Design the sequence.
């Protein structure tokens, strides 16, 4: 394990090279919830869009301490992962939602791979749209303020 600060250059680069994170939280009964989500790193915080009914979103209302796991999928090194511990809150401010959604579109859809994937799946956009309309309301962001970071060796 290599201990680092969350603002360390190597940590920021590893996060930039990751596309999906796994967020782990504890339920009020002490059960672990681990969910993979898309994310945006912005202004020293990590944001994940989700709905208020997501188990992790519910968990952080009673226990805001979370762990984030990053795998650096777009990086050259496959022998390590990054574990970030932090404090989470659920946010619903429209201006913050817009800023993060705009950055998510740029990160996940307006890239060569993202555009190609959208074109390949154009027939499924109706299903995707219905899925998101059914989950309308109660949407927001999990915002994590990183407190510590460490690289872990992948076995």
Sequence:
């Amino acid at each position: 394990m290599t201990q680092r600060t969350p603002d360390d250059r190597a940590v920021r680069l590893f996060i930039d090279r990751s596309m999906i994170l796994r967020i782990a939280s504890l339920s009020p009964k002490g059960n672990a919830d681990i969910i993979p989500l898309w994310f945006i790193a912005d202004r020293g915080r990590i944001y994940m869009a989700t709905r208020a009914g997501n188990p992790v979103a519910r968990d952080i209302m009673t226990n805001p301490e979370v762990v984030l796991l990053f795998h650096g999928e777009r990086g050259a090194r496959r022998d390590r992962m990054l574990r970030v511990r932090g404090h989470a809150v659920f946010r619903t401010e429209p201006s913050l939602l817009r800023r993060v959604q705009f950055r998510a579109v740029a990160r996940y859809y307006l890239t060569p791979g993202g555009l190609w994937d959208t074109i390949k799946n154009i027939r499924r956009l109706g299903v995707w749209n219905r899925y998101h309309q059914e989950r309308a309301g109660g949407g927001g962001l999990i915002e994590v303020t990183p407190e510590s970071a460490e690289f872990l060796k992948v076995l």
Notes: Helices lie at 9-16, 55-62, 94-109, 112-120, 125-134. The mean pLDDT is 88. The two ends are 12 Å apart (CA to CA). The longest strand covers residues 139-153.
